[in-house]
Amino acid sequence: MTQPSVIKQAVLTVKDLDRTVKFYEKVLGFKVIERTNEKASISADGETALLVLEHHNDATPRDPRTTGLYHIAFLLPHRSNLADIVNYFIQTRYPLQGASDHHVSEALYLADPEGNGIEIYIDREPDTWIWQEDQVYMTTVALDIENLLQEATETGWKGMPEKTVIGHIHLQVAELEKTREYYVDGLGFDLVLRYGGQALFISKNKYHHHIGLNTWNSKGAPALGKNTTGLKYFTIALPDEEEKQNVIHQLDKINASFSEKDGKIITKDPSGIEIVLEIEES
């Protein structure tokens, strides 16, 4: 089961393009649909680029205490897919950073060769999610690997399923109040969970979250440098021209800076993270 994707694409600056492409292709089983010496487009279905890797040989490694990417979360269509990739990681002894049950979802965590965080997850059925008024219940407990592996298939892991999407993106930000104003009052997301004073989770259409925002490692931190590895920008899909005009009006109302180019809105959040908003092609 996959939800319609709101986060369409992420663009990463990488120092070692060959090594990073090899990871996404050979370890995770994505398809490379375009490749030059300077750029590679990474896809699950062989047509749509979920990730674009841009090579900058003189880029400096990102300081993990700066603002920017916490992780990109790839949503698999079926629980059996998650079971198969767990089996695959066990067989190949690939190192993971964690495996968690969040009540709304089950997730694995790891990183690419340049330290960009990755989540691979499946959602539980939305009718099992618990909502307390407008707040969704999420938790973090150990993933029941034994139970999950009962869903594994005989064919096993054959690469990223075609219907894999970016289910959400999680960002490190410098503070939360201006950030909330920007994403909720400006971009029009709903605040669905305030995690103490350290994190916010926001979404469209009653999803558990399309964007996570935390200050765990980045409170008061500077923005990512221009010539630094890590997240360059990510793209949000807008349903139609009316929604695009609403976003323009709302960004203007909160005095957020933005520009328009080729029909797209280009803007930065209060932590300097660049976002491109474009109408989704039908």
From TrEMBL:
Pfam families: Glyoxalase (PF00903)
Top EC class of this enzyme: oxidoreductase
Domain (VOC) ranges: 6-123
Gene3D superfamilies reported in the protein's UniProt record: 2,3-Dihydroxybiphenyl 1,2-Dioxygenase, domain 1
Keyword entries, A-Z: Oxidoreductase
UniProt-listed Enzyme Commission number(s): 1.13.11.2
GO molecular function: catechol 2,3-dioxygenase activity
InterPro entries: Glyas_Bleomycin-R_OHBP_Dase (IPR029068), Glyas_Fos-R_dOase_dom (IPR004360), VOC_core (IPR037523)
PANTHER family: CATECHOL-2,3-DIOXYGENASE
This protein's name: Catechol 2,3-dioxygenase
Source organism per UniProt: Lederbergia wuyishanensis
